[in-house]
Specification:
Blueprint: E1 32-34, E2 41-43, E3 63-64
Antiparallel strand pairs: 1-2, 1-3
């Protein structure tokens, strides 16, 4: 929207939902932490963000699946 006047293209509800889409931060207690390097999967532990968990095989910080 140039100049913030609302003259830009129409936006769908999906566009307005913000950045936090899908299975990201605050995704709940279930799921897995996955190593981006070797693909190792471990069950996600509630209260321990996956980015603070190191892969048991290669030591790389894991990401949430």
């Amino acid at each position: 929207m140039p100049k913030g006047d609302g003259a830009g293209p129409p936006r769908s509800a999906a566009d307005r939902s913000g950045r936090m889409k899908g299975n990201r931060s605050g995704a709940g207690p279930g799921g897995y932490c996955v190593c981006p390097s070797c693909g190792e999967k471990v069950p996600h532990q509630q209260g321990a963000p996956c980015f603070n968990v190191k892969c048991p095989k290669c030591g790389t910080k894991m990401v949430r699946e």
